[in-house]
């Protein structure tokens, strides 16, 4: 679906069409120096992509990648066109889960093509924000690239913050006196952290390249802005590494607590058993058939025996309480 | 077994023979610039290899390696001839297992020799596909090298996807409430992942070399295609690394669940034991031989005792149920 | 809150104002060569930062970072101004906890702006110390940078030393014969060590840069001093790495001890059970109703039975003691 | 013990003496260009080494190392003489154990000194093989170096293959239904793998140096052969790394199985206990002394009680069988 | 305490004083080219260090480090003076413990200052050894540096060898059939290995620098000797890495054995319990009060019952023995 196609002339939008008109993909406007065209598509069909590829003369290998939503983040240069794949991440509160999407960008001298797969990051909003800042748009296609990366990485940081809260909850649950089976929760979190890492790690090298102006298209001033993005990316990556380490430690502690609890249970059970077994011995004794057992003939022999059982059990109970077995 | 031997002239096949004729190995056609000869062998005998080595003037060390099917992936240059060893992988659904084979390729200025060991990847199909695309074949021997690598790495991705499904199944089994012994399955998967890794990891450096046109034989345009292969290889390697990490976490969770289950079992058993032992105590008490035990002489003493036993057991049962022990 | 703003002329303080006057931020004094102005702020409002940024012409991205107290340590150059983010750490004895704050520094040719977030390190004291050493202040803004880094890293070492004591305590507790649940303590310490590492690790690269005079502003003599800071930083990082490894080993030992203790408990319980169950068997035997059981008719049959029970129990007790089960 | 000392003239042996004559060490023949002298010693005494060192003008530090059989593999250059330490490994089937020895080689322009410690690799055989291939010997001392390295690394591969079989056996044992204590076997194998690694790892750098002709003595042609050795070394190193990983996974699986077995044992024991305890309760009930217990007066009360016990036990047995506890 | 101060002229000692005279620190002799002065101090006071620093014009930062005995090993250059910190290690047999000390060395063109903290390595002995080898001393201050490093690293090797014996003992204890709690011993050894590593690892870089003659003061001939030291250092580091890995594996095996033993104990206990519980059931049966129980009236009913109990127990015992539970 082609979402938008506009020309940006001296930082101002010159609309070329709006929304879902397939013919829009083939609109190519001759650009004055400094101007550029930005076309945005969402979950495009093969045909839409083919039209756009043809219009902007994109490399077939990159177009093939752009049509597939399971790429890894990467930056590639085909002639004068940059091709950037970036994973989008967002946190869905209702499910405590991290969702992923993908944005592919073709950045040429005078055009930007953004191909979005999945939900999560609203590029239309990014575009509107950007259109309000003419002085940024004047920097041309790289400004769009920066704006999108900045937006995506900001979302990464929100995801990181949400995961930090989740890990805090797991921690609390592990160390609470309640008996909890936290291994499932820890596993799910580890899996999500791995997902974040797979989005973040491969993106660091492209951002570093932009930040150090290693690519010719980047000016020193633009590089400063990408340095900021790279720095945030580094922060996210350190946050998730740290969370991963904490989860591993929390899991170990969880295992230790299971063992400790089993030990406590065993001791409680044994103490409880003693409270039954000892009176049973007493009952057994007074069930013996000796001719001469004086207690049997006492008037209060039976209550005595019952009291003896209760007394011994109470004594044992007190002793176990004192020694921490009950 | 010599499978095929053909000359490619301006991207078109000029057949030199077909199939299992041992003399084919010695056929060497003088090539015009841009043309090349492609000979394919499958599980060759020492003699067949010797003939071919002689015909194409291959280095004895490389020929020795090509005759052995337990090489590690590597790229070596002997004079003007490249020698590439690549492991083939494919997933056999019936056995849930990854199988491995090997392809050795000698790539010269005007010839390609492909030596295949084991099943799995059908090079004849790759050759037919390639023959349909004359414009690719025109790029000469490196096009064949690319086509084979692309085919093999595509199969790696399929293997990776199949392993992802297997890991999902293990995950489900580990976290299902059923009692399962998943350690064998996890071990087997880890072993298969290690096998994939041993095929993928050493191949990355050769593909990177091609992708960056570090070798003189590679033009910038060809390099772009190898960059695509290298990227897919990187993706496979990240997938299996991720799966390996997930399996380790799943195994840890499995261990934790075993402990938790043992704990639950122990508590269930103890609670069950209490249901027997407490009535036994009561029976013991009424088995005592005191002269004065009023209950013994009650008309309904016996049913009273039985009811007492049942009542106490039911009380315990309710209490254990409530406290989660049963 | 603007804390202080002063001019340093030939190593001597020329006060420009003192304390919490917001207008101070806009005071900018023309500096003779070698002189510099140092303004210190603590938990500044957006407005205060904006005034200062305007006064000293600071880059907006750096100012944005400086207003946020959750940065990672980093060094960045914006034109001729260095921007350094450094985490402060200190150990609160009452809570056995490591606290963190942050200092942001802008260092230009003739000015220093220090922005402090959180408590812990008293920059006012550092400033007074420095003002007493005119020959250091004469080195200009980099002397201030050095003084702050040195102060902060000294505090890191104190934190490292405090953690060493904590780890020693954990160690003692793990290996004491007492039953202790050390997993929580170990987890908390690991978490704190991770915090220290996150402050220390990213700071090493900036300090190394200063120490090798990789930045033009640094003279060889100043570099020597930063080499000292970098060396201390390295020491802290080795200390916490070592502590982390020790904690992991201590945790493993803790797990082993839990298992060993469970085993001992199980044996103790079993031995204890035997002391009850064997006499119960004896009582059961003399409770049998055979017509001909000579012991039942002995005058001392009953005491004999009791003595037999006690004797067997004592024998078992001695045997269990000897074999280490009790 | 001096084993052999010969001159090689145009690839042909000119014997200078045979076997254990101590004076042989001092024999030094003037060599024509291309010729070289090869002296082999086995477990030499200090005196023998001193004589040889004197004869060939070897560096005292290298000679000291050569006299000691606990060196790590390394390559060092003393002036124009190369000094290579290489560990020999071989697998003793009877003991399922890896044994180690050591070969030290001094390689000069026109001489080779090989100093062998321990058993395992028969250099005399290598020498005879080499003497049969005059065209190799013509390459001079580096050919000897290659021949020895090739021989030693071939043996590494045999050791690797033997360890693979051992790991397969351990795997089978771990996953067999039988109760096995595999931890000792796994430990011993891990220890042997560590030994192999200590022989292989440090040797990779010297072989890489030879393979890339980084040393002036190596011609491109010779380098090709060393590349083959380096490749085999790499293969061994990957094999043992893989085995080490498999052993770790197998050990984890072993631990999991111990836990699972303990759990099964516990359930079996509990079920068995129930089969005894429930009849005991029944016996206890009919041992009560109530005046009015009709069953006691039944003609077939006793057989009824016994049948009740057996019936209840059989019922429990069936139930436990069905639910997998027995 | 100033231990010694001497001038070495053409490799021969010209004594300037002996032992604990504080004024010795200020003695500075003009040196002819090739001569040098060597002053040795042990646990110096601040004043002694200040005098020496003044006499030899040492950098205040280095002097501050030298006065503190908790430095990490490092090499620094202050102008023309090298400053080397090296940790000394030695093994105290009585306590099975590794002790640490520290040597700081200032090496200038014509002087060496050695500052020793703690016991363990006797520098006076090293000095006497060196004084006996005039041809070494003629190499000037670097010869002293070499001699001290060589001495210290030799001691590292002795420590490594002692730790190897300790690890062997632990191994034997872990795999002995006896029940041992080896976790404490393993922990202590791991801690000591970490200590060795902290002494060895940071020293490798300085030694490598000397060995490759990266520092201008080092001649190629001297470099050869430092290469020997660097090689020994490498050997120690590999030994302790290997020991650390073995200890981790041994610990894992220890854990596995605890589990196996617990399992065996549980089975033994259960079998033992069965030997008591089954006769108790028999006693219970003959304690029932049925009117018609023929055995009760047999003349030999009682012995029959006792024999039945013993017989059943013996049968169970044999069965448990056979199935490995007892």
What features would you describe in this structure?
The first copy, chain A, has 326 residues and is α+β, with helices and mostly antiparallel strands. Chain A folds into 2 domains: 2-257, 2-Layer Sandwich (Beta Polymerase, domain 2); 263-323, Methane Monooxygenase Hydroxylase, Chain G, domain 1. The first copy, chain A, has 9 helices and 7 strands. The first copy, chain A, has helices at residues 46-56, 60-67, 123-131, 134-137, 141-175, 183-211, 220-285, 294-297, 301-322, and strands at 2-9, 12-18, 36-42, 74-78, 81-92, 97-107, 111-117. The first copy, chain A, has a 7-stranded mixed beta sheet with strand order 2-1-3-7-6-5-4, sandwiched between helices. In chain A, strand 6 (97-107) and strand 7 form a beta hairpin. In chain A, helix 5 (141-175) runs parallel beside helix 7 and helix 6 (183-211) runs antiparallel to helix 7. Chain A starts with a strand and ends with a helix. Chains in contact: A-B, A-C, B-D, C-E, D-E. At the B-D interface, strand 4, helix 6, helix 7, helix 8 and helix 9 of B face helix 7 of D.
């Amino acid at each position: 679906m082609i979402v938008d196609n506009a020309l940006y002339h001296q930082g101002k939008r010159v609309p070329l069409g709006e929304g879902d008109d397939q013919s829009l993909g083939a609109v190519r406007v001759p650009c004055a120096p400094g101007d550029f065209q930005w076309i945005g598509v969402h979950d495009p069909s093969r045909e839409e992509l083919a039209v756009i590829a043809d219009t902007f003369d994109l490399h077939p290998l990159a177009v093939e990648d752009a049509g597939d939503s399971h790429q890894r983040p990467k930056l590639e240069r085909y002639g004068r066109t940059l091709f950037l794949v970036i994973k989008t991440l967002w946190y869905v509160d209702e499910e405590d889960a991290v969702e992923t999407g993908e944005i592919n960008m073709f950045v040429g001298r005078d055009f930007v093509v953004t191909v979005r797969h999945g939900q999560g990051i609203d590029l239309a909003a990014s575009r509107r924000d950007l259109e309000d800042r003419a002085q940024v748009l004047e920097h041309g296609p790289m400004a769009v690239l920066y704006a999108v990366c900045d937006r995506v990485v900001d979302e990464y940081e929100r995801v990181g913050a949400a995961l930090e809260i989740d890990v805090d909850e797991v921690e609390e649950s592990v160390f609470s006196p309640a008996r909890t089976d936290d291994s499932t929760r820890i596993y799910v979190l580890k899996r999500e952290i791995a997902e974040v890492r797979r989005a973040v790690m491969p993106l660091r090298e492209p951002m570093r390249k932009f930040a150090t102006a290693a690519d010719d298209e980047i000016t020193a001033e633009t590089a400063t802005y990408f340095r900021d993005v790279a720095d945030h990316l580094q922060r996210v990556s350190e946050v998730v590494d740290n969370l991963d380490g904490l989860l591993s430690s929390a899991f170990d502690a969880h295992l230790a607590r299971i063992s400790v609890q089993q030990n406590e249970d065993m001791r409680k059970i044994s103490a409880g058993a003693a409270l039954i077994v000892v009176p049973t011995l007493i009952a057994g004794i007074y069930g013996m058939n000796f001719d001469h057992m004086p207690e049997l003939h006492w008037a209060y022999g039976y209550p005595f025996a019952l009291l003896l059982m209760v007394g011994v059990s109470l004594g044992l109970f007190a002793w176990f309480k004192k020694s921490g077995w009950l």
